[in-house]
């Protein structure tokens, strides 16, 4: 194994320093607060809070919302990615720009846009009232939160799937057709198996922010729906000496995400793995 030269080490030093300051140090701080009490003594009590029924419900709800929004994103993203990959090169670039366009706006602004549409005096309910159809309560419902998640995270599912599909060898598809496969057969026996790495990457890129989100559930949930991200924020901001429980929940959330990512990673091979 070749030794790195002094110049290479100096080039890598700023990146290593950045990783230590902004990744390693915060993780160490979170772990420290997780395993210590108010007096600084070692304890596991911060983790026992998860045994309370209200916090168990929060974690279950977070998993459910993340799973549902990820599944919806996959069902919507796959045909969209396939359509884009079959278009001409110029049209592909144009459609990718349209997919990425909402991502150029901050997630807070995008969420507030949905708030303006869905609130009781919002655009949709105003239109329904003018048509004599009454109003519908959107804010404070599970549907509104899932809608916000799907809207914000859908591009993260489309792009990796499209990236894999656009690199598929068209000759493989033509060979399958020559061997008698119809469109359904080509899709199920060729396209889907070859696009698994993109699917797994997309699932990971959607599931991770979905399970840890808090702003979407706060605004579109109308304070009626509490997820893990909301609970962690409340512990850090509003609970006296809540840093320790908040840090413990953060650590549990990280372990949960790592576990789910490791499971998803089993569906990819070697170099196509997304984490390990």
In short:
The chain is mostly helical and 276 residues long. It is built from 13 helices and no strands. The radius of gyration is 23 Å and the shape is globular.
List keywords for this structure.
single chain, 276 residues, mainly alpha, MetI-like fold, 13 helices, disordered C terminus
What composes the largest sheet? Answer: none
- Using DSSP, what is the number of strands? 0
Mean pLDDT: 88
Class from helix and strand fractions: mainly alpha
Q: Please tell me what the overall shape is.
A: globular
Give the number of helices: 13
Helix content: over 70%
Rg, alpha carbons: 23 Å
Total of domains: 1
CATH superfamily: MetI-like
Oligomer: single chain
Distance between the termini: 22 Å
Using the coordinates shown, work out and report the CATH topology.
MetI-like fold
CATH class call: Mainly Alpha
Pattern of helices and strands: HHHHHHHHHHHHH
- Note poorly predicted spans: 270-276
Q: So, CATH architecture?
A: Orthogonal Bundle
- Beta content comes to under 5%
Lay out the secondary structure.
Elements: H1 6-34, H2 45-48, H3 53-86, H4 89-100, H5 107-118, H6 123-130, H7 142-166, H8 170-178, H9 183-194, H10 196-212, H11 215-220, H12 228-237, H13 243-265
Helix pairs in contact: 1-13, 3-7, 3-10, 7-10, 8-9, 10-13, 12-13
Q: How would you characterize this protein structure?
A:
By secondary structure, the chain is an all-alpha fold. It has a single domain (54-269), classed as MetI-like (MetI-like fold), CATH 1.10.3720. The chain has 13 helices and no strands. Helix 1 crosses helix 13 and helix 8 (170-178) packs antiparallel against helix 9. The longest helix has 34 residues, at 53-86.
